Amino acid sequence: MKTAIVTDSTAYIPKELREKLNIHMIPLSVVFGEETYREEVDITAEAFYDELKARKDLPTTSQPPIGEFVELFEKLGQEYDAVISIHLSSGISGTYQGSVTAGDMVEGVKVYSFDSEISCIVQGFYALEAAEMANEGKPVEEIMERLHEIKKSVRAYFMVDDLTNLQRGGRLSGAAAFVGSLLQVKPILNFENKVIVPFEKIRTRKKALNRVFELFDEDASKGVPMRAALIHANIEEEALELKAELERKYPHVEFLLSYFGPVIGTHLGEGAIGLGWYKK
């Protein structure tokens, strides 16, 4: 049985890695006024942050149309027996449900939709592992079982410079955003029950980053093989330095560098940084 792996653009898997592992991508979009851009297709992360600075109003974001899912699944059905479609948390987007609906509409190929309950490259971890297994010819049931197993060890924390975008975009409670801006707190955020919630409130950026590294160390210090990723919102230099620092300290961990692209960057804003990981 041949299995195709699909994820959406918010996994922010570098294009060369997607192509190497044959991961198919369906884009979400950002909308500036009358202009719609499919992320990873029509607009890069860098161009997006430039546009964001130049605009007064925040863009809106939109999930892929059902028709695009159907078209992709039908095309894949000509070559594959099954499709595993991995998406960002259903708590912040209807993309996963779109995949489920489209999967029920297509014939000739079985679609297995998977809610990562998270986003960004941490969502991408599931796609990477699924693609590696699919390329080895592993059966779809075994791949799905592994994805559910990964969910038990996935952890991710991120910090934003300003909570305003999250508040305005409705992705974080207004009260939490108000407290953060009032006290100049740098909250550490994470996903809990499929939505973004404050994990801890910390006074400075440096202390917040150190706290994220402490949380990482709780798992990484055990010496088990892990995959991890530094994620940044247009602060690549800082992220590269932090990645190099972590690589020296944890040689048994495979580190990736990723980014908050347009759709997630709309809500987090420039300067956000995160760290996600799981046990391999």
UniProtKB/TrEMBL annotation:
This is DegV family protein. The keyword Coiled coil does not apply. Keywords: Lipid-binding. PANTHER family: DEGV DOMAIN-CONTAINING PROTEIN DR_1986-RELATED, FATTY ACID-BINDING PROTEIN TM_1468. PROSITE patterns: DEGV. Gene3D superfamilies: 3.30.1180.10, 3.40.50.10170. The lineage of its organism: Bacteria, Bacillati, Bacillota, Bacilli, Bacillales. InterPro entries: DegV, DegV_C, DegV_domain_contain. Pfam families: DegV (PF02645). GO terms for molecular function: lipid binding.
